[in-house]
Amino acid sequence: MTVISSTKNPETLSLTLVAEFDADVERVWQIWEDPRQLERWWGPPGYPATFEKHEFTPGGEAGYYMTTPEGEKPRGWWRFTNIERPHRLEFDDGFADENGEPVAEVGAGHATVTLEDLGGRTRMTVQSTFESEEQMTQMLEMGMEEGMKEALGQVDALLAEHSHA
Predict the structure, then answer these.
(1) CA distance readout (Å), 109 to 5, 34, 71, 84, 112
(2) What is the CATH number of domain 3-161?
């Protein structure tokens, strides 16, 4: 199991997932940097993601949709706020309408991803922070925590495929 902990903190309005991988930091960084690899794990199983835009620079934007088993295509957006290759990545994120524009009612979250070298293995911490308790509750009720765990659970297979590179 990849995810070693998941912590909800109502005081800081955050959800933190910690996962460890049998790959070095440089390799794990690629699963964020390369949109084709990102697509292979970002959506939980059965909800593949398609990144139509992925400007991996501070101030850059990403736009994607997931395809549900029913064929619906819920969309999301990211705005990269900080990139410190290969150890730290931050972005604002939220839901998007069919034109890829942010859906204001839902609000935005902020994600901070850190990668630590564990002597050839990597610990990845993904912290999502929310604008309000209501938003956090809504996101958790929609299955965000479970979805993130399932999505991260797909990373090992992806890393194993490219370990020879």
Answers:
(1) 20, 22, 26, 20, 10
(2) 3.30.530.20
Helical spans, DSSP H, in 23-100: 25-33, 35-41
d(CA 63, CA 148): 18
State pLDDT tens for residues 5-25.
999 999 999 999 999 999 999
pLDDT of 73-85, one tens digit each? 999 999 999 999 9
Q: Which amino acid makes up residue 41?
A: W
Rounded CA separation 15/6 (Å)? 7
H helix count then E strand count, the chain: 5, 8
Q: Which pTM value belongs to this model?
A: 0.93
Cβ distance 83 to 56 under 8 Å?
yes
